[in-house]
Structures are given as structure tokens and as C-alpha cells.
């Protein structure tokens, strides 16, 4: 995609996807309240513009790695919401057959290499994927999503250094939502902008307003073009804020209500609504209609997933090993025993 001003159709498409992500997360919270989810749920509320604006530039042949807060990345990349809900509710039709839960959704067919419950765990995976793409001489790229807390992990420094040395096609996207669980970024980092760390690796660093869909889309588009042309990697920092707690049930006693209210005024969906009304002349009734349609899609996926079966006890040991490798290893073991 080029860097022209977003068209009316693109803005509407982005709005629908952002509303879809918000509706998915709200439904996930409702499922958690009913004790239907089988693991902790971390929602993406307030960060939707980042995933949508970035994934709009990616094809199924481009890879992403995600985090424990990965539902928005999955949906923006094109994942099946019914399979996602099935995974959250531990159904056998889920992406990981009900065994992975909210934090471990993956879909190789669309280039989604997996969410990750380990903070910073997806960063070295992205570097490995980037090495594979460079080895294959493709124009495809890897986008590595991680939070501000992961920016203080050893994997962050080691991985970016390796990607810089090998000039790998990876764009490291730090979703700086201001808190690593309950620790403010201001208390854990010596720099105001995490993208300033890029200079230490000799690569480009960019800080963007992550709540502005147009800024995200256009800045990432420029970065993606550079990386596809062999000029990567790049470190991008998207300044944003998670409107909900770290997880469903978080008492949020580490931040004030005033701070949350201030950031809610900068909600990325609200910001895009203002653009649609002022620039595209879309009415409030039309916005509500689109919201309702997206909410109905999400609820339909949730209700359908509820009807699916849970894995049986017989499935417990399935998918633990690659069957071909396990079969060969067992034969080798038997021969050695003889």
C-alpha cells in the first residue's frame, strides 16, 4: 500500500476492525465473568489502532509474533473469531484444540506465529523468522509486537542486536501502554521514548501516537517499505494506553481514575469516529449501525463456539510431539534396547 491519505473506504474498514476487536474483548470479559474461559484474559482495549493500522500493510506471507495481549493482533491479521473463542473456552475446535488458551493462539496459514505468555518470548522468534525470510530471499517481513515491560528483558537487547548485525527484515513494534503489569514505564526506563534505544544498535527508531490510526498506518507503511527493500530492521514505539486492567479482575490500584479517564478521552475508536464524522460526513446513526453489525458478528462467533465439545481425556497426550519424529525416536530407542 502506498502512503496516500486514507480513503473513506479504508477509514470505514479500519473502524469496523477496531470496533470488532473491542467487541471481541468485551465479550471475552463477559465469558470470564461466567467462568467460561479457562485461563486469564488480557484485553487489548485502547490499543486497537496499532494492530489494525499495521496489519493493513501485511499479507499472509508476512509474519507477526504476539504477546499475552494478542487477541487484537490475531483479529487484525485475519484470524477466525470462532476458533479464537473456542480456544478461550477450551473447546476442541479451538486454534490449539482447547489446550493453549487465550495467550497461545497461533495460525500459520495467515502468518500468525503465535501469542506468547512469556514476556519478551516472541522477540527472538521474530528474529528467527526474519533470518528464514532473508535466507529465502523474499520481500516479506516480520512484525514483532511486544510491550514496554518486554523492552527491559534480555531477549529485547539480544534479539535487536542480532537483527541489526544480520540486517534482518524485522520491525520491532513496542506497544507502550505505560504499564508493565503494575509498574509504570516512567519508573522502569531511563529514557522517555523507548525508540531512543535504537541508536545503540545502529538502527532507526521511531515513536508514534499509537491511538491515531492514520499516524500508525502511514508511519508503519514507510517503515515496511524500507525493510522490504533491505534497509531494516527498525524499532517502532507506539504510545498508547490499556483502558482495562492488566487482566480481567485486576484491581488497578497502581493508577488513578483521573489518569484512566484522561486516556479514555484519547480512545483510538473515538478518535476515528471524529474523523469519520467531520471528514467523511458519516452520521452517528451510521456509526451505531456499524457497531451493532460488528457486535453481532462477535456474539455469533461466541455463541457458536460455546456449542463445541471440550477435548476428551483421550486427547490429553495428543500433539505433544511431532508424530514423525516421535515415531523415529521410538524405533531408535527400541533398537538400542535390543
> Number of helical segments?
12
Order of helices and strands: HHEHHHEHEEEHEHEHHHH
Q: Which percent range fits the helix content?
A: 40-55%
Integer-rounded radius of gyration: 21 Å
Estimate what percentage of residues fall within beta strands: 5-15%
- How far is the first residue's CA from the last residue's CA? 62 Å
Strand order of the largest sheet: 1-2-3-7-6
| Mean of all residue-level pLDDT scores | 93
Shape: globular
Quantity of strands, as a count: 7
Report the major sheet.
Answer: 5 strands, parallel
Name the assembly state: single chain
Q: What are the segments in which pLDDT stays under 50 over at least 5 consecutive residues?
A: none
Structural class: alpha/beta
Structure described in brief:
Residues 299-318 are annotated as: Disordered. Helix content is 45%, strand content 9%.
Which features does this protein show?
338 residues; five-stranded parallel sheet; two-stranded antiparallel sheet; 7 strands; 9% strand
Structural commentary:
It comes from Candidatus Anaerostipes excrementavium. GO terms for molecular function: pyruvate dehydrogenase (acetyl-transferring) activity. Its cofactor is thiamine diphosphate. Keywords: Oxidoreductase, Thiamine pyrophosphate. Residues 299-318 are annotated as: Disordered. The chain has 338 residues and is an alpha/beta fold. It has 12 helices and 7 strands. The protein has helices spanning 8-33, 48-55, 71-77, 81-88, 122-135, 154-166, 185-188, 213-228, 257-264, 268-278, 284-306, 323-337, and strands at 63-65, 142-147, 170-176, 179-180, 183-184, 204-209, 234-239. A 5-stranded parallel β-sheet has the order 1-2-3-7-6, sandwiched between helices. Helix 2 runs parallel beside helix 8 and helix 4 packs across helix 11. The radius of gyration is 21 Å and the shape is globular. The chain starts with 7 loop residues before the first helix and ends with a helix. The model has no long low-confidence stretch (mean pLDDT 93).
Amino acid at each position: 500500500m502506498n502512503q496516500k491519505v486514507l480513503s473513506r473506504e479504508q477509514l470505514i474498514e479500519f473502524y469496523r476492525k477496531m470496533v470488532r476487536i473491542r467487541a471481541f474483548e468485551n465479550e471475552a470479559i463477559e465469558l470470564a465473568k461466567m467462568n467460561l474461559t479457562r485461563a486469564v484474559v488480557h484485553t487489548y482495549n485502547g490499543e486497537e489502532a496499532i494492530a489494525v493500522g499495521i496489519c493493513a500493510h501485511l499479507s499472509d506471507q508476512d509474519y507477526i509474533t504476539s504477546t499475552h495481549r494478542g487477541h487484537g493482533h490475531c483479529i487484525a491479521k485475519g484470524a477466525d473469531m470462532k476458533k479464537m473463542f473456542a480456544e478461550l473456552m477450551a473447546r476442541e475446535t479451538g486454534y490449539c484444540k482447547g489446550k493453549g488458551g487465550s495467550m497461545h493462539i497461533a495460525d500459520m496459514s495467515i502468518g500468525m506465529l503465535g501469542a506468547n505468555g512469556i514476556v519478551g518470548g516472541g522477540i527472538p522468534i521474530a528474529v528467527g523468522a526474519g533470518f528464514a525470510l532473508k535466507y529465502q530471499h523474499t520481500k516479506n517481513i516480520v512484525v514483532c509486537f511486544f510491550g514496554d515491560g518486554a523492552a527491559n528483558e534480555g531477549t529485547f537487547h539480544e534479539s535487536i542486536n542480532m537483527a541489526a548485525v544480520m540486517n534482518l527484515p524485522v520491525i520491532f513494534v513496542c506497544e507502550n501502554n505505560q504499564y508493565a503489569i503494575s509498574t509504570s514505564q516512567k519508573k522502569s526506563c531511563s529514557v522517555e521514548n523507548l525508540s531512543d534505544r535504537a541508536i545503540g544498535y545502529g538502527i532507526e527508531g521511531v515513536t508514534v501516537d499509537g491511538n491515531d490510526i492514520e499516524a500508525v498506518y502511514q508511519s508503519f507503511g514507510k517503515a515496511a517499505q524500507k525493510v522490504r527493500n533491505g534497509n531494516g530492521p527498525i524499532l517502532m514505539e507506539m504510545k498508547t494506553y490499556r483502558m482495562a486492567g492488566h487482566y480481567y479482575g485486576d484491581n488497578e490500584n497502581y493508577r488513578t481514575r483521573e489518569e484512566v479517564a484522561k486516556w479514555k478521552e484519547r480512545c483510538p475508536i473515538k478518535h476515528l469516529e471524529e474523523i469519520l464524522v467531520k471528514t467523511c460526513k458519516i452520521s452517528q446513526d451510521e456509526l451505531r449501525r456499524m457497531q451493532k453489525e460488528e457486535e453481532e458478528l462477535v456474539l455469533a462467533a461466541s455463541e457458536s463456539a460455546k456449542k463445541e465439545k471440550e477435548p476428551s481425556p483421550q486427547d490429553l497426550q495428543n500433539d505433544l510431539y511431532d508424530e514423525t519424529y516421535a515415531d523415529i525416536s521410538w524405533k531408535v530407542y527400541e533398537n538400542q534396547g535390543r
